[in-house]
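Support request, please re-run this one:
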Amino acid sequence: MPQEKQAADRGYYLGFDGGGRKTDCILVDPAGAVLAHATAGPSNPLRAGYAKAWFTISDAADMVLERQHIKSSDILGICAGIGGAGRDAVAKRIATFLLAGFPNAAVSVTTDLAITLQAAVGDGEGIILVVGTGSGAYGRDADGKIARAGGRMSSRGFFRSLQPWETRAIQWRAKFCQVQRNRWLSSLGAFSRN
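Re-run finished. Output below.
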């Protein structure tokens, strides 16, 4: 059996980006270096159900921990951006689940839209459009006020409510954002997609 890394003088952190189709999980060290990445199934409990979401989150975490021979007790912090977590009751259930599995971790659960906005603009103002299993717009103004639209309807329902020129503009912007996201992830050494 491989020896487990000692985390007495340092800890590790997990990040989850989960939605209705797939869940990405990364393991990082205190300096922010990505040590491992895994992709698993859907983790939006409102779409997949809570049991499926728990299994998916556990599978993704187990994969990255196993690759680096790290125990769950070595995880000091978790940020989980999960579809459906915009509802307080959903976010609390996810946090409770994560706290039970990672006893030494500080846990933050938010929406997948919130982590996408943070990755795109940091603490600044901006807006993101997400078109996937669920579709929505999420933004923050210069005063820090958050606004969102969509997120609970299907992609088809979101697009049916738009004019053709709006649809084309969103599709172009979504492709641009995907390219930017991939560049950012590649710069972190996480993974890349075509």
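Residues 1-9, 153-159 have pLDDT under 50 and may be disordered. Residues 121-182 form one domain.
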